[in-house]
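Dig into my protein:

:::
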Amino acid sequence: MEGLQSWVSNHKLTSIGTIWATSIGASMAYTSAKRAPFKPSLRLIHARMHAQALTLAVLSGVALYHHYENSGADHNRQNEPK
């Protein structure tokens, strides 16, 4: 797990792009398998919207984690004996 965290930490934009592309592919596959009576262009629009929502959720989670991590480090620095 630590190896994955360090890779994601070093390749932030690649990780976000991979999540976005994967969610577009998954959404397209889901709507194709469902045999929805939508045109391909409408399926692509919906897939993009799903991918965008997932990407925003992931970015929000990462921002919260980063904030939590930094506030804990600041708190530890303040409590260190001098």
